[in-house]
């Protein structure tokens, strides 16, 4: 709502498009609140079928979009597709509703898509989420630990083969992109960050506090900053970026409280926070209502379930 008001001050309404973006600003917190309520009223497993179907359909749609582009363009030129982020943000919730012995299926499904898309940030997310899923848990028995470790290293082995196979047969240059991260500055991200930070440093006091206005980043660097914190600071100012940071700080402290209270599903919120933070630091997340909404859906359900657990102390078996 704060950003919506800033938009009206810094960017007067000139078209229907302006109205659309003003109303989309609070879209993510509204999604979070709706599923927070649903998480309190229902068990998370009530949504199991819907979530799993949505997850795999989104992965299939990603392959369809990428294949369609390559055919339509009649080109073998490489292009990174961000559509894979939609199902990737749902991964923590899918893992919550999947038996450990079958968890390799959704992980490999998203891992393959991330490799094909060439999204280096996505690889970091899948690796961190998999590690937390397999190695963080309350009171796991020895046999379960062995199964988890075996599955984790199985995924590492299969992913290594997948990267090599895809690179060799489809020329998607996944390994080259990862190896050239330093040389290409993260596909120009370092240049974008430096230029935006320099512009913030040269801003007047009003611009530092309240930003340069909606979409101002495009006039500066011709696109997104690929870092939420920097872009929110430039567009909406110091007050807005402090509010954004507080959102993550409160989530992290709440997650710590979940572990202290022995909430069995705490690690899935940890995974969702990691997804959000990595996306916020290397892509655009809060600044557009796209795959952000997938994460708000996941966080809303888990937070609603946690509230029910904290208030009523109901037993959770998994």
Give an overview of the whole structure.
By secondary structure, the chain is an all-alpha fold. It has two domains: 1-41 and 186-318, no CATH class; 45-179, no CATH class. It contains 16 helices and no strands. It has helices at residues 2-10, 16-24, 27-41, 48-73, 85-88, 91-96, 104-117, 120-135, 142-170, 174-179, 185-201, 205-210, 216-221, 228-260, 266-282, 292-312. 34% of the residues are buried.
Query: Which residues form runs of ≥5 with pLDDT under 50?
Result: none
**Alpha-beta classification:** mainly alpha
Task: Return the string of H and E elements.
Answer: HHHHHHHHHHHHHHHH
Helix percentage: over 70%
**Average residue pLDDT:** 80
Using only C-alpha atoms, the radius of gyration works out to 21 Å
Beta-strand share of residues: under 5%
> Quick one: how many beta strands?
0
List descriptors.
globular, mainly alpha, 74% helix, 2 domains
Secondary-structure topology with pairs:
Blueprint: H1 2-10, H2 16-24, H3 27-41, H4 48-73, H5 85-88, H6 91-96, H7 104-117, H8 120-135, H9 142-170, H10 174-179, H11 185-201, H12 205-210, H13 216-221, H14 228-260, H15 266-282, H16 292-312
Helix pairs in contact: 3-16, 4-7, 7-8, 7-9, 8-9, 8-15, 11-14, 14-15, 15-16
């Amino acid at each position: 709502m704060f950003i919506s008001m800033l938009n009206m001050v810094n960017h007067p309404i000139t078209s229907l498009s302006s109205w659309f973006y003003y109303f989309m600003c609070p879209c993510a917190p509204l999604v979070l609140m709706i599923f927070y309520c649903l998480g309190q009223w229902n068990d998370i497993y009530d949504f199991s079928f819907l979530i799993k179907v949505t997850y795999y359909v989104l992965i299939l749609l990603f392959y369809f979009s990428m294949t369609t582009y390559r055919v339509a363009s009649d080109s073998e030129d490489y292009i990174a597709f961000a559509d894979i982020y939609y199902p990737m943000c749902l991964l923590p919730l899918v893992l919550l509703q999947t038996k450990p012995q079958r968890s390799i299926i959704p992980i490999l499904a998203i891992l393959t898509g991330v490799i094909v898309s060439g999204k280096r940030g996505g690889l970091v997310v899948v690796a961190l989420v998999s590690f937390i899923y397999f190695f963080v848990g309350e009171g796991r028995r020895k046999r379960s630990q062995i199964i988890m470790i075996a599955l984790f290293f199985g995924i590492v082995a299969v992913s290594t083969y997948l990267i090599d196979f895809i690179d060799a047969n489809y020329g998607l240059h996944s390994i080259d992109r990862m190896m050239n991260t330093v040389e290409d500055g993260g596909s120009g991200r370092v240049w974008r960050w430096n230029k935006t930070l320099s512009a913030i440093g040269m801003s007047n006091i009003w611009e530092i506090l309240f930003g340069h206005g909606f979409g101002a980043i495009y006039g500066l660097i011709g696109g997104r900053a690929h870092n939420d914190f920097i872009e929110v600071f430039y567009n909406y100012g110091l007050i807005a970026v402090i509010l954004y940071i507080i959102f993550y700080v409160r989530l992290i402290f709440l997650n710590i409280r979940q572990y202290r209270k022995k909430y069995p599903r705490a690690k899935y919120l940890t995974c969702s926070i990691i997804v959000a933070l990595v996306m916020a630091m290397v892509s655009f997340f809060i600044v557009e209502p796209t795959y952000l909404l997938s994460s708000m859906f996941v966080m809303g359900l888990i937070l609603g379930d946690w509230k029910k657990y904290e208030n009523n102390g109901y037993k959770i078996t998994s």
